[in-house]
Predict the structure.
Amino acid sequence: MSMKMLRNVGGALALASLAACATTGAGTGTTREDNLPVKFNWSSDNAVSGDLTATLANGEAFDGKFFQVTSETRVDRLEPLWTGWRFRHDWPYWDSGPDFVKHYSGRVVANLQGTQGEHMRCSFRLVHPSSGMAGGGAGRCQVPGGETVDATFPAA
């Protein structure tokens, strides 16, 4: 086999391995106040971050990045979690600072932006943290009006 052919095969294998790492999944939820359904979809190219979309029963969609908190997570990398919220401390599920990483290891957090500019914040406890979202989990999200959504993600 020629060197050029080996490089082409190597490149194809590298691309295939990157594609093989991509995972996707879906979850379901219900609003606590009205018991309305919420659909979740996620995709990730690695074990610690990805994209998450939540679609409410009225059709409004929220999307953005999710982050799995691990012992290596740097709090400054999570700054997008507080965008769009007047107070960081008005939701008991997270706070900024060094204790955040210790407390939230094994969880996924997200701040999703809606089509009307509002935000939905989420916190999920993972069933198998070493598998990321693919290992399944459950948690809660909140929209600015205070309504919460209970969410479940089966293992992919």
